[in-house]
């Protein structure tokens, strides 16, 4: 999954939209879906953080989605920040699993 932001500026709109892209429409019926939006007065990093964490939280609570297992490539949000955001959402057991996985990946 790839998550990105785009700025929409038709008259009267001016919003950043956060979009999640999947390789297949199998899960959500789409390959790209808008997962939220935020005001341009908010920094891109803060707006993306809030939007992504809210979306993950809804996936974790409403769909029992477990914590993702790996981060293949970081972009504007570095690996440590992405993992920190994930720890805000998933419970301690998931965080322990993921930290063990993360540490093992760093050692290998």
Gap from first CA to last CA: 24 Å
Biggest β-sheet strands, sense, barrel? 3 strands, antiparallel
How many extended strands?
3
**Number of helices in the DSSP assignment:** 3
Rg is 15 Å
Query: Into how many domains do the coordinates divide?
Result: 1
Catalogue the unreliable spans: none
Mean pLDDT: 79
The percent range for strand residues is: 15-25%
Structural class comes to alpha+beta
Question: What characteristic shape results from the CA principal axes?
Answer: globular
Topology:
Elements: E1 2-8, E2 15-21, E3 32-38, H1 44-62, H2 79-89, H3 92-107
Antiparallel strand pairs: 1-2, 2-3
Helix pairs in contact: 1-2
Q: In short, what is this structure?
A:
By secondary structure, the chain is α+β, with helices and mostly antiparallel strands. The protein has 3 helices and 3 strands.
What does this protein structure show overall?
This protein has helices spanning 44-62, 79-89, 92-107, and strands at 2-8, 15-21, 32-38. The protein is α+β, with helices and mostly antiparallel strands and 108 residues long. It has one domain (2-107). The chain has a 3-stranded antiparallel beta sheet, with helices on one face. The longest helix has 19 residues, at 44-62. The chain is globular. The mean pLDDT is 79.
């Amino acid at each position: 999954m790839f998550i990105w932001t785009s700025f929409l500026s038709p008259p009267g709109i001016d919003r950043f939209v956060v979009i999640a892209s999947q390789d297949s429409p199998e899960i959500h019926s789409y390959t790209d879906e808008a997962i939220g939006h935020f005001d341009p007065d908010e920094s891109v990093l803060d707006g993306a953080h809030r939007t992504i964490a809210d979306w993950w939280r809804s996936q974790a609570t409403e769909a029992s989605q477990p914590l993702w297992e790996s981060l293949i490539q970081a972009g504007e949000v570095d690996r440590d920040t992405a993992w920190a955001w994930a720890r805000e959402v998933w419970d301690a057991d998931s965080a322990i699993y993921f930290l063990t996985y993360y540490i093992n990946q760093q050692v290998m």
